[in-house]
Amino acid sequence: MRNQIRSTDLLERVAKQTDGAEIYELHSLELPVRFRAGVLESVKVVETAGRALRIIKDGRLGFSTTTDLSDDTNLLQNALESARSGDPAPFRFPAKQPAPSVQCFDPHVEHLDEQKLIALGEEIVEKIKAYDATLQIDAWAVKELEEVTLCNTSGLELVSRRTVVSVGASVTRAQEGDILIIYDQDTSRRADKLDGTAVAQRIIERLRLAEKVAPVETKAMPVIFHRGGVLVLLMPFMVGLDGRNVFLGVSPLREKLNQKIFDERFSLIDDGTIDFAPRSTPYDDEGTPTARKFLVEKGVVKGFLYDLKSAALAKAQPTGNGFKSGFRGGGFRRPPGVAFTSGVIPPGEKPLDQVFKDLDEALVVEDVMQLGGGNPLAGEFSNPVLLGFLVRKGEIVGRVKNTMIAGNVYDLLKDKLIALSDRPEWVFGFVHTPAIALDGVSVASK
Amino acid sequence: MRDQILKALERSRADYTEIRVEREWRTEVAYRKENLENLEASSELGGIVRCLVGGGWGIAVFNSLDNLEKHVEDAYRIAKAVSAKVLERVTLAPAQPVQDEVRVSLKKDPRSVSLRQKQELLSRYNELMLKQSDKIVSTNARYTDSFKEVTYANSEGTFIVEERPDVTLLVSATAREGEKNIQRGAESHGWLAGFEAVENQEEKALKAARRALDLLKAKPVTAGVYTVILDPDLAGVFIHEAFGHLCEADFLFKNPRLQEVLKIGRQFGVKELNVVDDGYLPGLRGNFKYDDEGTPRQKVYLIKNGILNSFLHSRETAAKMGAQPTGNARAVNYQFEPIVRMRNTYIEAGSASFEQMLKDIDYGIYACGSFGGQTMIEQFTFEAMYAYEIVKGQLGELLRDVVLTGNVFETLKNIEMIGNDLVIKGSSGGCGKDGQFPLPITAGGPHIRVRTLTIGGKAA
Predict the structure, then answer these.
(1) CA–CA separation, A269 and A346 (whole Å)
(2) Does B380 lie at the interface with A, CB-CB under 8 angstroms?
(3) How far apart are CA A257 and CA A24, in angstroms?
(4) Domain locations in chain B?
């Protein structure tokens, strides 16, 4: 057994051979519990550790990762070789800056053992089974503890501990020529915020509404994007507000800064500072403080998201959105890139049932297939509806089958916004949004 | 390492224990437009223990080998907790213990090619695309290589060391005309080979860029039901995604309704239709000699002479369904347990020439390549990269926005001609299932002709 080297010691050695360096070290413990077809299938304990080294040498960037924490040679050699052909480094690693206070760690998560997680999953499975025992129910519960050390040659040294817990289920009912899939989950950094019962109830509520099938006509009509359906509208913003796409000139929003191009009731915020939200953190994976910032404010484009590299290239300021790949940030294997923290859409004033009542006929879209289908960079979407309901005269009359929706998000949010509902909800733990009703969305049905 | 593993296996209290340790060397070069987004040389070591206790699985994943016995103990403890909950105890189909060491010899081992050479090669392909026209507004070019040494051992006496190399190349170009007309062309390839496989591939970069440009002028398809010829790429994606996954026994055995539909011996297509998952096709991705349970690779006929013949199995699913393991228990890396996965899946060649297929079509569609798609049990949706109209037996104009949808069983029945021109290929991505992505696989077929396939355009 060789001794592990501390990141700070390694950094000292690396500093002598480079013009700047950054080490990101991750230790993580995950405990996923999985149920398949209503039965406990497997439990896993995943205890991983790895380190990434980013260097600047002769003005060029180099990158390498390893899982060998005792290695003091290969990682640096690899990074140096990478820097010999690397891209010019347009930035310097940041010194420590003041950051917002954000709660990311819940000590109770440490004590969640496999028995408790199994019980969490069982609770969901049993509740759904009680509604209909013939459904195919897949469910999971998982906890995660992370310790990240980030240090660089500008004197930054951060150690952060984070927790995440998540429960969810996917329910399938398959009949000849008709497949119903309903998915829901809840994710938080805090154990007592997790509500398995609510996940089960939301699924059952939708199963009930889905009992009847309602035919929908092919035409342009009002569509209410609800829960997972809202992600359809967010996809174009995720790529269009990405500082890399702005710098590369491929985002249509690049020339619209400070222009009002959307309905003034629509705003979009990126917020890394919400206590215990799964993507919250005081610093991003490059050591830039996160913030709460308007990307769209009352219809006006207010800003883009940048990591260190894209900010330097675009001559903008980094926004605390440099994250390593993976849905929750995290992971040590990839170099940082631009990513949202939590997306927040401020609500409107009408209760959802009032939004329904004001519409003669509308389609509620809760989940789609091929998210990102169509051409999100151009604002376009084109998706088969996985879960959608038809509303007539204020009431949900049934579930729609074999239905596609399509449109252009930028155009629709400009002058087709009917209403935002008054109660925002967390969607998949990373977007906090009301339901959004838009008119004139193309609906095609077979 | 060998002694450490054997000792940990020996001390395990579980009914069955297996340990897999992977050492990986990998590099990646990635361009987006002129921007070098990643240039990386990395290494990784990690392992997984799987214990079976009282018919329940417990799994432990780790990076440090220092305390292997603790990880075995973790897996054992968890397995015990699971076994208290299982309704049906997991058993494993019997297997012969194997002792083997599988080394590969590559023409140009990527580990001995400098990162600079890789970067320069990819930069050349990238520039070639950018240079084609000022209408090319963005590109993606990515090269990856990975060389893995996998050590697998279990408590039944199997001990295997196997080398698994893999290289991939993606070149993709986006062309734009005006604000709204944005089109993409891509060539995506993967091989079980050395660096030589990605050299001299300028033609692929040119093809990607030219296709994006051509598609700017293509007309959108009119939605409808047509006689459709699928090219080998799209035939492969169809047979892998829409049909192959249904034959993976771990999906099937927990789905009683699907078991009703997928009865061995049932007729699924014309007599000429043969669908194969082949463990060994030299040079193709995923051709490792053993799967991640130590079962040797095999050639399995999923459909033989139009009749459903076999499923793909792990030792667990084989035991449950009274079949033989087929060597399809695969894990994407050491962080995952093996699950049932395909390898090289294809439709065997038939007898029709492409001209014969075209001949009597009055109006139809020739659909090529795939940008991916989605399947929902037997329903599928695939987006073709591009297509041509077929008018009175002749190829006509280039078409875009071609999306194919349907029911896999109906579509299999509607295959009316099978070409004589089998092509099997790997892509730069891979197969995804249960969070395990990207697993190296290949897929293919000859040209196939399907009557009455639904083509949607982009929803109007």
Answers:
(1) 8
(2) no
(3) 33
(4) 2-217, 220-456
CB contact under 8 A, A45 and B74: yes
CA distance B422 to chain A (A): 29
- Residue numbers in B near A335 (CB within 8 A): 37-38, 40
**For B408-442, what is each residue's pLDDT tens digit?**
999 999 999 999 999 999 999 999 998 899 999 99
Q: Residues A117, A118, A124, CA angle at the centre, nearest 5°? A: 95
Interface test with B, best of A41, A44, A122 (most B CBs within 10 A): A44
**Under CATH, which architecture does the B2-217 domain have?**
2-Layer Sandwich (3.30)
Residue B178 to residue B181: CA distance in whole angstroms: 6
DSSP string of A278-325? TT--SB-TTS-B--EEEEEETTEE---B--HHHHHHHT----S-EE-S
- Tell me the pLDDT tens digit for each residue of A142-162: 999 999 999 999 999 999 999
User: Token pair for residue B362?
Assistant: 């009055």
Q: CB-based contacts of A419: which residues, under 8 Å, 6+ apart?
A: A348, A350, A355, A358, A436, A437
Nearest CB to A81: which of B41, B78, B258? B41
**Rounded to whole angstroms, how far apart are CA atoms A324 and B142?**
18
| Residue B213 or B379, more confident | B213
The residue type at B378: E
How many residues can be counted in chain A?
Answer: 446
Contact: B376, A373; criterion CB under 8 Å: no
For A31, residues 6+ apart whose C-beta sits below 8 A from its C-beta are A43, A44, A45, A46, A112, A113, A114, A117, A142, A143, A144
Angle, to 10 degrees, between the axis of helix A114-131 and the axis of helix A196-209? 20
pTM for the whole structure: 0.95
Distance of CA A316 to the CA centre of its chain: 24
Which residues fall within 8 angstroms of residue A212, CB to CB, at 6 or more apart? A397, A398, A399
Local structure of B127: helix, strand or coil: helix
Asked if B456 reaches chain A (Cβ–Cβ under 8 Å), the answer is yes
* All structural domains of chain A: 7-208 (3.30.2290.10), 213-446 (no CATH)
Which segments of B275-418 does DSSP mark as H helices, in order?
315-321, 354-359, 408-413
Q: Tell me: pLDDT of B283 over 50.
A: yes
Q: How does DSSP classify residue B262?
A: S
Cα–Cα distances (Å) from B320 to A425, B51, B291, in that order, read 43, 18, 19
Indicate whether A182 pLDDT > 80: yes
* Distance, C-alpha A80 to centroid of its chain: 33
Q: How far is B379 from chain A (nearest CA, A)?
A: 8
Q: What are phi and psi of A253, to 5 degrees?
A: -85, -5
Q: What is the C-alpha radius of gyration for chain A, rounded to an integer number of angstroms?
A: 24
- By Cβ distance, the residue of A66, A86, A378 closest to B42 is A66
Q: Is B111 on the interface with A (CB under 8 A)?
A: no
Q: How confident is the model at residue A330 (pLDDT cuts 50, 70, 90)?
A: low
- What residues of chain B, 406 to 445, have a C-beta less than 8 Å from chain A? 407
Angle between helices A74-84 and A7-17 (to 10 degrees): 40
Q: Which residues pair with B56 in a beta bridge?
A: B53
Mean pLDDT (chain B) is 95
Residue B460's pLDDT band (boundaries 50, 70, 90)? very low
Q: Are A253 and A246 in contact (CB under 8 A)?
A: yes
How many whole angstroms separate alpha carbon B335 and alpha carbon A333? 14
- Give the ipTM of the model, two decimals please: 0.93
**Distance from C-alpha of A61 to C-alpha of A85, rounded to nearest angstrom:** 8
Query: Which residue in A has a C-alpha nearest to residue B224's C-alpha?
Result: A446
CA–CA gap between residue A206 and residue A209 (Å, rounded): 5
